[in-house]
Design a protein that fits this description.
With 304 residues, this protein is mostly beta strands. The chain has 3 domains: 204 residues, Jelly Rolls (Sandwich); 46 residues, no CATH class; 51 residues, no CATH class. The chain has 1 helix and 21 strands. The strands form 8 sheets. Strands 7, 8, 9, 10, 11, 12 and 13 form a 7-stranded antiparallel sheet that branches. Strands 1-2 form a two-stranded antiparallel sheet. The chain has a two-stranded antiparallel sheet with strand order 3-4. A hairpin with a 4-residue loop joins β20 and β21. The termini are far apart.
Length: 304
């Protein structure tokens, strides 16, 4: 059984390499060989994988199939890192900081890799972003074919999953996160952990809206205009009448009954006692309630 699985994996890897080569030249993210150089202008990093030249400042646009200057600041470079275990004796230099030190041409033995868990547990690598960021996407360069992989953005007790891939044989992986994926740590985990040679993380500084300033973060981490409320959360000064506009980093007036509204991950733009239904602020159970304009509340209908 084990032999047959190995044969199948070998075929898949061969097909992957074949797919990434055209006319003898290897395409982006493909494994390069002595007799199969990278397709210009790509370069054979570490003698293993084809990526853009000057990878610190350039990235590969898969849509246009060209190398472009990075249009983002990497929020992970040089930040503190950790791993589930220290490197193995076989790779003593495969320390965690090698995954985000900005060096794309290090030898394969220097790519970050924890000693594998022999008990079939999850190996992981983590970076502390040192502030709350909205994570948009990340680019992962490895010397191993990436198979099972999970990427999580962590905000205290909240965990936002960007990616869980069961089968994705590649040396270079681009991962996109959903909007409003906000956290202070980024964690990559896998049952069979690949070596991480370099990781680019695209994100923007964000306010930890609705984060607990009692258990998850310190009160001063609620960035203006948010405050640590009496309930122990990063909130606008008047949560009942204001909502947090993440795009502008402002606290704006909530919408009232029958006004247009928007639903967000953590909130809606309606007053707290209303719900945003089909883009309109309404009572939670309109067939049983009516809106009282004098006190701004939804009250039980006499006919309910």
């Amino acid at each position: 059984m084990r032999t047959s699985i190995q044969v199948i994996l070998s075929i898949i890897l061969y097909l992957q390499v074949f797919k990434e080569t055209t006319g003898g030249n290897v395409g982006f993210g493909g494994r390069c060989f002595t007799d199969r150089p990278c397709r210009p202008p790509l370069e054979c990093t570490n003698g293993v994988v084809c990526i853009c030249p000057d990878a610190l400042n350039n990235y590969f646009d898969r849509g246009e199939q060209i190398c472009k200057p990075k249009d983002f600041v990497d929020i992970a470079k040089g930040k503190p890192t950790s791993m589930s275990k220290p490197p193995s004796r076989r790779k003593p230099n495969a320390k965690s900081f090698h995954a985000n030190n900005g060096l794309y041409t290090e030898t394969s033995s220097s790519c970050a890799e924890p000693e594998h868990d022999t008990g079939y547990g999850q190996d992981w690598w983590k970076v502390n972003l040192q502030a709350y960021y909205e994570v948009h996407r990340l680019f992962l360069l490895s010397i191993d074919f990436i198979n099972v992989l999970a990427v999580d953005v962590i905000a205290g007790s909240k965990v936002f999953r960007c990616k869980f891939s069961r089968i994705r044989y590649t040396l270079y992986l681009e991962i996109n996160c959903a909007s409003n994926t906000v956290g202070k740590e980024l964690k990559i985990s896998a049952s069979f952990f690949p070596s991480i040679c370099e990781l680019d993380v695209n994100g923007t500084l964000a306010n930890p809206y609705k984060a607990s300033c009692v258990t998850d973060i310190s009160p001063e981490e609620c960035i203006t205009p948010l405050n640590c409320s009496a309930d122990g959360f990063c909130e606008c000064e008047s949560p009942a009448t204001q909502f947090y506009n993440r795009d502008n980093n402002t606290c704006d007036a909530r919408n009232i009954y029958k006004e247009n509204c928007i639903s967000m991950n953590e909130d809606t733009t309606c007053y707290n006692n209303l719900v945003c239904a089909q883009g309109i602020c309404n009572c939670q159970t309109p067939w049983l309630q009516y809106y009282n304009p004098f006190n701004g509340n939804c009250e039980a209908s006499m006919y309910s």
